[in-house]
């Protein structure tokens, strides 16, 4: 029996979750630091005024030090805020203290933080369950980022540890591709049309 794309995605998420659970803590810390350094060296970062960045969960790249550096560099930083199932907006924070545990226990901006319109964003730093070197990403199944990114025009960079990356990712028409893949091994630039 042939599995659907949705079933293939669920199976891949399970495999990646098991792989992530086995990653040594020191590898995660070193890879996170290298990824942050690559982000900060990007021309897209240096030229950006407004940046969209997720607040990493324990299994993801830890982005709070990166967000703190962005704020220190004078960047306007927006962090995702879940409105409802599959729908999110980006809200501008002024400091890390603006982040509070939100839906799913993920740090999110306080509701008093202003909305940052997608058309004003210069660079988006996007999480993933896994991704590949073609700019294809597999999220966590909620569709939040694919829906938000659908009509966006800013540069999209997915952050992923190299040991979590995979070769093939089942894709559907609504799945959004990235412009940059950043791991501790470096930066891969992709044309979304590939």
UniProtKB/TrEMBL annotation:
SUPFAM superfamilies: NagB/RpiA/CoA transferase-like
Keywords, comma-separated and alphabetical: ATP-binding, Ligase, Magnesium, Metal-binding, Nucleotide-binding
GO function term, MF aspect, one: metal ion binding
Catalytic activity: (6S)-5-formyl-5,6,7,8-tetrahydrofolate + ATP = (6R)-5,10-methenyltetrahydrofolate + ADP + phosphate
Binding site residues for substrate: 60
EC class: ligase
Magnesium found in the keyword field: yes
Key word Metal-binding present: yes
Biological processes annotated in GO: folic acid-containing compound biosynthetic process; tetrahydrofolate interconversion
Necessary cofactors: Mg(2+)
Pfam families in the record: 5-FTHF_cyc-lig
Protein name: 5-formyltetrahydrofolate cyclo-ligase
The organism's place on the tree of life at top rank: Bacteria
Residues involved in ATP binding: 9-13, 137-145
EC number: 6.3.3.2
InterPro entries linked to this entry: FTHF_cligase (IPR002698), FTHF_cligase-like_sf (IPR024185), NagB/RpiA_transferase-like (IPR037171)
Family that this chain belongs to: Belongs to the 5-formyltetrahydrofolate cyclo-ligase family.
């Amino acid at each position: 029996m042939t599995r659907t794309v949705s079933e293939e995605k669920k199976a891949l998420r399970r495999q990646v979750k098991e792989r992530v659970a086995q990653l040594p803590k020191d590898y995660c810390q070193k890879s996170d630091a290298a990824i942050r350094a690559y982000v900060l060296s990007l021309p897209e970062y240096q030229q950006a005024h407004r940046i969209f960045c997720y607040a990493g969960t324990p299994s993801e790249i830890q982005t709070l030090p990166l967000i703190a550096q962005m704020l220190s560099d004078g960047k306007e930083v927006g962090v995702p805020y879940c409105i409802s199932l599959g729908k999110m907006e980006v809200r501008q924070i002024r400091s890390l203290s603006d982040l509070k545990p939100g839906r799913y226990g993920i740090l999110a901006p306080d509701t008093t933080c202003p909305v940052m319109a997608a058309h004003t964003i210069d660079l988006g730093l996007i999480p993933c369950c896994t991704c590949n070197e073609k700019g294809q990403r597999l999220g966590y199944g909620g569709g939040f980022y694919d829906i938000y990114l659908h009509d966006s025009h800013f540069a999209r960079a997915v952050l992923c540890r190299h040991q979590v990356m995979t070769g093939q990712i089942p894709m559907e028409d609504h799945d959004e591709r990235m412009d940059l893949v950043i791991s501790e091994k470096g930066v891969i630039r992709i044309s979304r049309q590939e």
